[in-house]
Specification:
elongated; 5 helices; 2 domains; mainly alpha
């Protein structure tokens, strides 16, 4: 992928440039970058936008990040943007695929799938079965 990197190398931003760019910048942020951005001294007047499910912030995986955010005093807005499809889209997909069985996963309401889909077969989290 060196050819791809070479095309974008002229746009590379180094840590020592971040403080000057920050007042005009929007930055995709990952919690693992917190210390590096802090060291670059580019967080003055910054603001975080958390776009995932807010419940993740209460879990142990993000405890260090949450503590860093509170300690740094950077305000954070929670604006959840879902990666989950609406029922109408899922119904169109199921109709197009026409599965022999439809097994809901990653759902708090798997028991309700039969209200919206045919051939629903519910399984317990972690349960193994043969296809």
């Amino acid at each position: 992928m060196f050819d791809v990197l070479k095309r974008h190398s002229s746009n590379r931003v180094f840590p020592e440039q971040l403080a000057a760019l920050a007042p005009e910048a929007l930055f995709l942020f990952r919690p693992s970058w917190a210390k590096g951005l802090e060291n670059a001294q580019c967080l003055t007047d910054s603001r975080l936008v958390w776009s995932q499910w807010e419940g993740y912030l209460a879990g142990p995986a993000f405890a260090t990040f949450v503590e860093w955010q509170r300690r740094s005093g950077i305000p954070m807005d929670v604006l959840h943007t879902s990666g989950h499809a609406p029922i109408a889209d899922l119904q169109r997909l199921a109709k197009a695929i026409n599965p022999k069985r439809l097994v809901p996963i990653h759902s708090f309401e798997s028991g309700r799938y039969a209200e919206f889909f045919s051939n629903v077969e519910c399984r317990a989290d972690g349960e193994r079965w043969s296809l």
